[in-house]
């Protein structure tokens, strides 16, 4: 084994992640909730998903019942991303879960411990250069990544996601799914819409039919390119930093701090609009945010582009307008104009607010059966929930290993459990409007996001090669990363 080469590959990986950080502009990788918290202040307006974005230290486990195991014997769950450690104060905490107890810790010295059974990672922070290597065969890797892949494209590729054994992502297919992380419940959708005549009155006073409120402008979904084109065919009032053509009416509302809370004045203002442009920052199956749910809460019709499978989650089959159903922005504009002038047709989009109007049983069941809550103090948040999920999984795996050890002839070794690409299914980014071939090579979206996407694959493959200690592959990737580094250096 050539240790020098290993070091060089690692160094190259480190260098690459620095480059990626530079190329991602204002985003701070490694800052949980970076986008929501400051780069895209409008987005957090209605409510915040639970603790992953801050409220750390909420759930102290109950005191252990008498006669339970000593803490010293418990399996250890190590939060490799220490910033997310959901306990306070201190660096370790005994947690009580359905199957039993575990010791949660954020002390990285526990990595090599035989008792450490699982490492927990936050996707936004996960960097190849910071991965705990060498990987211990007895340890599961657990990934929490509820956010958009723009924070880390490594995880959108097979070699990246398959590094993990357990996942909690926005995908319904993940082990601990969080697709409805931004939807507090069915009642949130059912809230009555303001009378249509009020909106008609705002229209008469010169409001556009469509609202756009976006302050994070360069994103993988390249949404502004589409909206810019749409604006040629129908009026859009745009209040955020992106494509801004209007000012919010008061200084207080213009203050981004106001916009990040659940501000009644802001919500009242937004509900003057009949249609809200709702474009996610990245396109992934089941990645849906408040951009989708908030207009529905306010009784507006979302004009949506985001999760390609969003229909599966809608209250009924006639509640939002999907941008991708229209062959061009012009056709979409014509349709919105038609609805704008036909109240009877428009109001059909709000039928889900009527009693019995939510007919999607899959949506209702998913809301009912999830164990975590959104802004609900009576339910666990999904950070603590996932931690217990991992604890239970490891306790079960320990039992299965013990059973196998006691009668190896009858009971097989437990099957490995490996995450799948469906746990974070984000297709190659495409331009918001037009074809990728038509976009010049020096276009910022192409230079930034398309490159980032493919570099995510390279990093995943490089890290896999490191873990499997495959010298041939390591050499190949070192050469590759070196090339990128040289190229980047020339460009800087
Ligand atoms: C919507 O659902 C209704 C009732 O199930 C059905 O009759 C109708 O064809 C559906 N419409 C679309 C566009 O799928
Ligand atoms: C965890 O995933 C890796 C692949 O990344 C696999 O080799 C290993 O067997 C899995 N471990 C368990 C305990 O399932
Ligand atoms: C991209 O290249 C074209 C022609 O090579 C040039 O006219 C244009 O200014 C460049 N755009 C940017 C953003 O650099
Ligand atoms: C190392 O990687 C190469 C290229 O992917 C592959 O052909 C080879 O079988 C691997 N060797 C080992 C020992 O896994």
Tell me the major beta sheet. Answer: 6 strands, mixed
Shape: globular
Summed up, the helix count is 16
**How much of the polypeptide forms β-strand, as a percent range?**
5-15%
* Helix share bin: 25-40%
Structural class: alpha/beta
What small molecules does the structure contain?
A: 2-acetamido-2-deoxy-beta-D-glucopyranose
- The topology string of helices and strands comes to HHEEEEEHEHHEHEHHHEHEEHHHHHH
Computed over alpha carbons, the radius of gyration is: 24 Å
By DSSP, the count of extended strands is 11
| N/C terminus separation | 35 Å
Order of strands in the sheet with the most strands?
2-3-1-4-5-6
The poorly predicted ranges are 1-61
Residue-averaged pLDDT: 84
Q: Which keywords apply here?
A:
single chain; 492 residues; alpha/beta; six-stranded mixed beta sheet; five-stranded parallel beta sheet; 16 helices; 11 strands; binds 2-acetamido-2-deoxy-beta-D-glucopyranose; signal
What does this structure look like?
The protein has helices spanning 3-23, 34-39, 158-161, 186-190, 196-204, 223-230, 251-254, 256-259, 264-270, 290-298, 329-341, 343-347, 361-369, 382-406, 444-467, 471-491, and strands at residues 76-79, 92-96, 101-105, 116-122, 140-145, 166-169, 210-212, 236-238, 275-279, 301-305, 321-322. The protein is of the alpha/beta class and 492 residues long. A 6-stranded mixed sheet has the order 2-3-1-4-5-6, covered by helices on one side. Helix 1 (3-23) packs antiparallel against helix 15, helix 1 runs parallel beside helix 16 (471-491) and helix 15 packs antiparallel against helix 16. The longest helix is centred in the C-terminal third of the chain and has 25 residues, at 382-406. The two termini are 35 Å apart. The model is unreliable at 1-61 (pLDDT under 50). The site of one 2-acetamido-2-deoxy-beta-D-glucopyranose has 2 residues, from loops. Its EC number is 2.4.1.-. Residues 1-21 form the signal peptide.
């Amino acid at each position: 084994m050539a240790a020098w080469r290993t070091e060089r590959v690692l160094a190259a990986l480190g260098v690459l992640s620095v480059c990626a950080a530079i190329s991602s502009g204002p985003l701070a990788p490694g800052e949980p909730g970076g986008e929501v918290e400051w780069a895209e202040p409008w987005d957090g307006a209605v409510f915040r998903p639970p603790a992953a974005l801050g409220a750390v230290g909420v759930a102290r486990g109950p005191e252990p019942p008498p006669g339970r195991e000593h803490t010293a014997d418990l399996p250890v769950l190590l939060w490799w991303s220490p910033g997310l450690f959901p306990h306070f104060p201190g660096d370790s905490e005994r947690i009580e879960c359905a199957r039993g107890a575990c010791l949660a810790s954020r002390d990285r010295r526990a990595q090599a411990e035989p008792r450490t059974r699982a490492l927990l990672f936050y996707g936004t922070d996960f960097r190849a250069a910071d991965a705990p290597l060498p990987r211990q065969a007895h340890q599961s890797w657990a990934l929490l990544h509820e956010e958009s892949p723009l924070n880390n494209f490594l995880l959108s590729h097979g070699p990246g996601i398959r590094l993990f054994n357990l996942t909690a992502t926005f995908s319904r297919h993940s082990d601990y799914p969080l697709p409805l992380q931004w939807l507090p419940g069915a009642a949130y959708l059912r809230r009555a819409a303001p009378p249509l005549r009020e909106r008609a009155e705002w229209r008469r006073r010169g409001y556009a039919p469509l609202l756009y409120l976006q302050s994070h402008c360069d994103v993988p979904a390249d949404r502004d390119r589409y909206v810019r084109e749409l604006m040629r065919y129908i009026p859009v009032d745009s209040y955020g930093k992106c494509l801004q053509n209007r000012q919010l009416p008061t200084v207080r509302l213009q203050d981004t701090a106001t916009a990040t809370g659940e501000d009644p004045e802001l919500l009242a203002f937004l509900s003057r609009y009949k249609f809200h442009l709702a474009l996610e920052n990245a396109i992934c199956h089941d990645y849906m945010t408040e951009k989708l749910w908030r207009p529905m809460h306010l009784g507006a019709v979302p004009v949506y582009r985001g999760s390609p499978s969003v229909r599966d989650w809608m209250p009924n089959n006639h509640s939002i307008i999907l941008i991708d159903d229209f062959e061009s922005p012009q056709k979409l504009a014509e349709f919105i104009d038609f609805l704008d002038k036909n109240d009877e047709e428009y109001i059909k989009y709000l039928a889900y607010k009527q009693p019995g109007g939510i007919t999607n049983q899959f949506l209702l069941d998913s809301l009912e059966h999830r164990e975590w809550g959104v802004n609900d103090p009576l339910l666990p948040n999904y950070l603590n929930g996932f931690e217990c999920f991992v604890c239970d999984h490891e306790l079960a795996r320990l039992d299965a290993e013990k059973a196998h050890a006691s009668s190896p002839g009858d009971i097989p070794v437990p099957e490995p459990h490996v995450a799948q690409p469906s746990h974070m299914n984000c297709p190659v980014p495409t331009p918001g409007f037009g074809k990728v071939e038509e976009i010049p090579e020096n276009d910022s979206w192409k230079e930034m996001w398309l490159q980032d996407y493919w570099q995510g694959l390279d990093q995943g493959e490089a890290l896999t090669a490191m873990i499997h200690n495959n010298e041939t592959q390591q050499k190949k990737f070192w050469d590759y990363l070196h090339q990128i580094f040289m190229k980047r250096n020339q460009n800087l």
